[in-house]
Amino acid sequence: MSAPVLMILASFLFATMSVCVKLASELYATGEIVxxxxxxxxxxxxxxxxxxxxxLRTSVPSMHFWxxxxxxxxxxxxxxxxxxxxLATAMTLNYMSSVWMALFLIGGAVMLGTxxxxxxxxxxxxxxxAGVALILRPTIDQNQLWHGLIGLLSGMIAAxxxxxxxxxxxxxxxxxxxxxxxxxxGAILGALSMLWTGLQPHTWRGAALxxxxxxxxxAAQMMMTRAYSTGKMxxxxxxxxxxxxxxxxxxVLLFNDKITWMALLGMLFIVCSGLAATLLRSKTAFVDSxxxxxx
Length: 295
Prior knowledge:
Elements: H1 3-24, H2 30-51, H3 61-84, H4 87-95, H5 97-112, E1 116-117, H6 119-135, H7 145-170, H8 175-197, H9 204-230, H10 233-239, H11 242-255, H12 261-279, E2 286-287
Antiparallel strand pairs: 1-2
Helix pairs in contact: 1-3, 1-9, 1-11, 2-3, 2-8, 2-9, 3-4, 3-7, 3-8, 4-7, 4-11, 5-7, 5-10, 6-10, 6-12, 7-9, 8-9, 10-12
């Protein structure tokens, strides 16, 4: 599948996973959810690698370490925000990673003075963010300010993780290996956090939610990593906004969120942003021959 299709599917699966995370947060601490998400992913990838005759040995362990550290930190902060904020709000704050990523790239281009930026593609990212703002029309309540800041921070750290994913792809690391070490990092850091929070007793419902989080996250992570490894970074950033639309639909169906004209207009902006990014996929958006992250 092409990178845009992979990103759209990944966005849908991540939105579905976020529903499971929100429900699981009623039963488990954030670190414990991260642990099970990572454990399921690591075990799944290890088995698939063995069956397909691949190897988990890597020549760039330091790159995996930093990617896993930043990715797991962003994941934990995002899960915490999902458990304490409305679903669409938490999703949107994390999805600001696309805007942070664009700002990082543009800032780097300006500082180096060696790159060209396609203003049309940057505009698709801004259009998607405008749609997000319309969907989230209410401001965060005073008693949710801390949770909102945590969600915002998760998006900033996630942007650095996505850049590292692209660098690993350019270094020749296969998708399954990148996702395996990320999942392993989640299991390790999640287990360490449980030394403080302890283990919660399981129920059939809780176990099913944890399993769903792990399976959905692993599949979505594989798709997203493949998209960022093979596609254009800012195109992926634009398409990633579709996760907000999916989470908005979930909010309406599962959490009785109200539909307003502003929200519908915001969804339209997001869809237009994704379509525009796909149309521009074949055109050069960011050229820098010295950068290992360039598509």
